[in-house]
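Structure ticket #2291
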Amino acid sequence: MHSSSPEPEAFLSKRYSVLLCYLIIAIDERVKACTLEQLYSIWSRSRPSRSVFINLINEMEELGWISKTPGPKRSARNLVVDQSAMREALLISPQQDMSRGWLFDKGVFDDSLLYPSAQ
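Resolution: structure written out below.
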């Protein structure tokens, strides 16, 4: 029978899932209410297809790690992140600063897209 919600271990074994979790935790440390479009555009190198990205986001929502709320535009959705649940599943200490990690330093993620220059 098909389970109604995914198991964290099964989710974390999927390609891109752990990187997506790291990205969401890091961005949530800096900027609350990041939209899905912003989150996807931050992924600079080796990013998943948009459909894979959305499927992973939906599974994270089923796990209770994130929830989607209405964003600034009708088509935009903001993410509300349960950092405690995600960090526990990934065995990351609450004190670990994820926004200062190698994923940004090595160009996998580009956080400058969240900080546009003043217009």
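Closing remark: The CA atoms of residues 103 and 109 lie 6 Å apart.
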